[in-house]
Design a protein that fits this description.
The longest helix has 23 residues, at 175-197. This protein has 250 residues and is of the alpha/beta class. It has helices at 5-14, 45-58, 73-81, 99-107, 114-131, 141-144, 160-171, 175-197, 218-232, 238-244; strands at residues 34-39, 68-70, 134-137, 151-157, 209-212. The protein is built from ten helices and five strands. It has a five-stranded parallel β-sheet, sandwiched between helices. The model is unreliable at 1-27 and 245-250 (pLDDT under 50). It is globular. It has one domain (30-240): P-loop containing nucleotide triphosphate hydrolases (Rossmann fold), CATH 3.40.50.
Amino acid sequence: MQHDFGRQLADFNSRPRQNNQPLRVDQPQSERLAVAISRQTGSGALRVAEGLAEYLQAHAPHAEPPWRVFDRTLMVRVLEDHQLPIRLAEFLPEDAHNTVDDMLQELLGLHPPSWVIVQQSIETILNLVGVGNVILMGWGVNAVTSKLPNVFHVRLVASLEQRIARIQARERLSPKAALLYIQRSDRGRARYVKRHFHHEVSDVLQYGLTINTDHFSDAEVVRLIGDAMVSRHRSAGAGVRSLVASETHI
């Protein structure tokens, strides 16, 4: 059954933004599963997400739509959904600028106010998890979907040494530059979630599963998440049981 998310969000989007209040939305339910991944920079999350999409697709019924991954492409999807220029994505990393920069860029017309983008991203996130069979990262997806029973919440962490090594290889940076990249990225994500949702990304109680990727291969992390999803949703609704039905093949 499809849900009309636009009507449920209309009242929310019409309210003035209160800086001292976390953003709130009605969170409709879906019959299909979704995954929200929080990660430390350099913990290998994108490779895991792509592997998990393949794993879940392989164990899903043939009639199920394909599993999709949204990481940096999530903001591109937000802009597409709201008929905004895709080029704005380069100006909209996860809270990489401060409030003063945000005001200046708004005045210069570089992008809409950040609170508008946040509301639009919430709508897009809820639309995606409403359809289901998606793996989402970034933009407060764990906070936005925290009360949705069809969404499995995961946190990926790793030692600083391993994260620096991954970022060095991926971005071709020196160890010092890789460390600064990690610190800036992690601070930005934490600040974004704290500022807009009053959540702490490091709070392990938000997640159904937290994995230190130092101790497992990508394939092992994928299997851990996949098995945990099956166990978590074993007694869920009919749409969720479509994945559980394949449990004997996992």
